[in-house]
Amino acid sequence: MTTSERIEKDTLGEVRVPTDALYGAQTQRGVENYPISGYRAFPAFIRAIVAVKKAAALANAEAGRLSPERRDAIVWACDEILGGKHHDQFVIDVFQAGAGVSFHMNANEVIANIADRKLGGALGTYAKVHPNDHVNMAQSTNDVTPTAMRLAHLELTKDLTAELDRLADALGAKAAELRDVVKPGRTHLQDAVPVTFGQEVGGWSGRVRSAAARLRAARQELCELGIGGTAAGTGLNADPRFRERVCRSLAEWYGEPIVPAKDLFQAMQSMAPFVRISSGMRTAAIELIQVCNDIRLLVSGPRTGFGELILPAVQPGSSIMPGKINPAVAEMVDQVCFQVVGNDTAVMLAAQAGQLELNVMMPEVNYAVCFSATILTNAVRQLRTRTIEGMRVDEERAKELLDASPSLLVTALSPHIGYARAAALAKRALAERRPLLDVALEEKVMPEADLRRVLDPLPMTRGGVME
Description:
Helix content: 55-70%
Shape: elongated
Radius of gyration: 30 Å
Number of helices: 18
């Protein structure tokens, strides 16, 4: 042993732990067993598991099982961590033993050491506050982990839904600004009837807002906590009122309608609430992918592509081509969304891999959901502030394209001259590279005043028959 280490003992024997570490033997075993990714728990999950420990200490003291002295020391330690201190002491890799035992013990040991030192003890002695006997009283990894997961996911998806709402608002404002600016509509990537930019962008806004609503509905399931089920759902070693007391505190701290789960066995066996929340993020990602791909198409060129949109220039687009500007933020959002879709697949596989009273794959579910919520929140914010809010329309380019394609306007003629004759007009206009109006006037299909009225693109965007 070197002077930079201390010796601790657990049920398997002696373990060497860094002298100044706030964690202990079981955490150290986890560090040595799982040097996998180098990724650590998301801060929201650290806060969540510590909040559970704080609420448990208060509940156990209220039940007369934990002394006021230990309660106060544990609460003080938890408040230190919740205030942002000691996060560097949560050292377990996100890919670890099933159910999250290693991370759970990491939390128990850190809290115990801080609390014990507060009461005059030395690191690793647990003279007055023990990680298992006191910090973990009336709890098990099997109910603490899924409870903390729900809390972390509530926190992270609250931020995400708020960002989706802001993006929908920004798109809605842009749609109102562009409500009368006509442009080519496209289906199958071919010219279709005219639409306005306001209608197109308004559709994006509605899609994002609906995605936020779906995700918000999915969050409701996260509010039912299985804490108090302990090892298998029976509540062994927990006071009968423990679960209500813990949930009461957590509901107050998180500002969410948190309640004890109706069925503790279901709450520990099933990953369905996490599948639903992950699915909600996947749905949002899929909508965002299409919106961003539409933006990338509409900004393409700008001379040899569509060139209808102009985005803020956020960075040079090439290391070799001077003056090139790319839709960089939209490209980033696409990549984030691809990752979210992949994370959702990982959640699905982990969720079905549980057996009997416990799903041991919870660490993977938790990491994937926290990762998705974090990167999607940040990506949505950047899309709004770095692209959508500064997005402009090249109205001259839109009109140029509108005038260049007879198929955009010819549909409005069909009720007046018939489908076959309208198709023949469009075919001739395309072949001769002439405006549809010129060819229609030449063939005298309608009086000029009527023809100009019927072929006015803006009224076409409002539906009905062009009279």
